[in-house]
Every structure is written in structure tokens, then in C-alpha cells.
Amino acid sequence: xxxxxxxxxxxxxxxxxxxxxxxxxxxxxxxxxxxxxxxxxxxxxxxxxxxxxxxxxxxxxxxxxxxxxxxxxxxxxxxxxxxxxxxxxxxxxxxxxxxxxxxxxxxxxxxxxxxxxxxxxxxxxxxxxxxxxxxxxxxxxxxx
Amino acid sequence: xxxxxxxxxxxxxxxxxxxxxxxxxxxxxxxxxxxxxxxxxxxxxxxxxxxxxxxxxxxxxxxxxxxxxxxxxxxxxxxxxxxxxxxxxxxxxxxxxxxxxxxxxxxxxxxxxxxxxxxxxxxxxxxxxxxxxxxxxxxxxxxxxxxxxxxxxxxxxxxxxxxxxxxxxxxxxxxxxxxxxxxxxxxxxxxxxxxxx
Lengths: 144, 197
Prior knowledge:
The complex is a heterodimer. Chain A has helices at residues 55-60, 105-110, 130-139; strands at 2-8, 11-16, 20-25, 39-45, 48-54, 71-76, 82-95, 114-120, 123-128. By secondary structure, chain A is of the alpha+beta class. The two termini of chain B are 32 Å apart. Chains A and B meet through strand 4 of A and helix 1 and helix 2 of B.
């Protein structure tokens, strides 16, 4: 399966590309008031307002750096709801076999949205469970 | 091979370092305005990005969706008892052997110009892929990637469309060149059938 690779500082993550609608440059939120610390507010994505989750803040507690390589991944769930996920270094895709992801109970207890880890010659890559991210955004289940 | 990989890694590192700069002033604001405006869906349907290249004396175009890699010319390894007019051998691409085919023979392009140079030192190899079918073709010259309006395609001349080697969606005109836009699905279907005969 094809996965999109991105970074939080030096930690590598992937998510299933079938949820990805578009990858856009970092944009300013129209409303930065948010009830949750991990959100940057709402962004105007092609005429509709969607929540913007700062994945760097969700994982590390630090906001995504305002650098050129920061991108917003627009994700769409099976029931047509969209969210924007802000991350760093969103630059390439990788082919990964789903069975290559190994479960790690320590990681999944600390970060429930990580559904497995893939050990590669260039380091460990963590798989993001996109349905759980949607659940978090729309149902407000707290993480971290 | 080692050199190729180390160059690739070095290039990736350079790109990463280049992008780890702070956004210039106005950069985020400019993108905020652009994304707010929405996308013209009708434009997207009629525009196609294509790679334009020359094979012998013909200018051709293939959708960028099927272009996986463009590389310098490399050694073609023959396959005993399995080669024909279409299948010419195998080529090492990133450690994997890919089938090398003659696009000019598939399209029945004949050499009739002095600008052609058939030596293996010139030109490029191009890895094309559709639904996990990978083929390597040779191109003599690459013009670049352009966006083509589908409605601007004109029909293929009847002398070509009636031939057995009609793989074209249509022809478009660019920079004084008549460029044949190859129907990729038809090409891959034909390759699968004919290369393995």
C-alpha cells in the first residue's frame, strides 16, 4: 500500500494515502480560537471551513515550525468529513506492506493514534491511524 | 550502483536542508488567499500534464501519471531466446531488472531524418509504469513537461488511424512541432500482449 511520509522534528510517520485529498502549503487559520490545544483553529479550504490539527503539537507538544517544508495534509474520512493535518517534511510517498507494521504496546499506550511501527534501514517509521485522528477531531476524544 | 545511491541520498539531504528554512514574508498569506479561492474543477478535467519527448524523428507525449523515472542510458542485458522486435532485453533500475522495449518498433516509427542518432551513448531511458506493469523505453530527446488542453487535440490523420499501430489519442501543436499524444492504456495493453509473445 502507498503511504505518505512526513516528519515531526526527526521522527518519521506515515499515513495511508487513500485518505489524502490534497497536500497544500501552510495557510493561516481564519479562526484561531480552539477548545483543544492541539488544534490551530479552522482553515478556509476551497470555500469550506475545516479543523486544522497540528500533528507536531499532538505528538511532541511543540508547534510545527513555520518553515517552507511544513504542509497541511487534507484528509477525508469515509463519511466525507475533512480535516487538515499540519506536519513537517511532507515530501514523499513509500510503498509499505501492511504486515510490515509491528505493534508496540508502549507506543500505542502513550499515543493511541499510532497503530504500528515499521523498522527500516533509515530508522523507525510510525503508522498513524487516520480513523482515530478523525474520531479525535470530531468526537473530541482526548489524546496526550 | 553505490555511487548512484549515495548521490540520491546526498540530493535528498540537500533538498531537506534547503526546505528547512523559515518561510519568507508574505508566503503563508499568499497561499492562504490562493487556497481560499477554490479550484476550477472544469479546468482540471480538460488539462493533462504530459512529458514530451522525441523518438527518432517523431515528437511524442505520454501522461506524467505513467512516468516513474528518467535516467541516463545504461547497459541493456539480452535475454536468450526471449527477444523479439519489441522486447530488447532487461535494464537494471535501482537494483531491479526491468524489461526494456523498443517504443519505436511498437509505434512503427521508421528513421527518415538525419537528426536521429541511434547510438546507446545518446538519449535517455525512461521507466514507465501503469498498474504495476513496468517497462523501460528509450527516448532520444526530452522537451519537457507541459499541460495540454484535451479539447485542443486534433484527430490523427486517417493514414495513421487506419494502421495497426495507432496508439494516439490525438495530435497537438506546440512550438512548431506536431506531437502525438499516446493513449497509455492502449500502449500498456499492447506491450503486455506483444512483448511476451
